[in-house]
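Proteins fold reproducibly. Consider a sample protein:
=====
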Amino acid sequence: MRLSIILLLCSFFGFSQNEYEPSKSFPFGKVNPTAPEQTKDYQALIGLCNCKSTSRNQDGSWAEPIDMTWNWKYIMNGMAVQDETLKADGKHSGSIRQFIADSSKWYVHYYASGTPTTKLSTWEGNTTKDGNIVLYKDQKAPNGTDGFSRLTFYEINDKGYKWVGEWVDKTETTTFAFWKIECIRTKD
């Protein structure tokens, strides 16, 4: 009898510590109610989308769009967000996204199959009043001008979203888009 009670309690506590992870019932996980409120900033992106990814060629022209799936889920028992892109050209990537309450910012750690690294690139930012998610990382232009790599999710709705990667100067008056993605939701 005691062993049954102990096993029951262990399974209850084991389950309760992971109840917000992806599962059969919730394949993309759930937000943990104890997570910072901002963890819901990505709620409209959670799920699976079919996308078209378009980047710049070396000569500055736009390359042909590449088919891509973008999969979003809650991780770390609903305390953070992870996304993964799988592209038809075999260049896959992903990010771990954590909101840090002390700084009131999102920190996004990016990794890619084509550029393995010992130190992940990190963007930081927030959601704007109009619902866009905007992230920045210091980055010089090819000519040495100081600026940022700015990543923006916009036109976010129940049908999908758009994303653009741009280099912007420090005043954000000069911009140069280097990558754009358009996504249509397939599963949430």
Q: What stands out?
A: The chain has one domain: 2-187. The two ends are 43 Å apart (CA to CA).
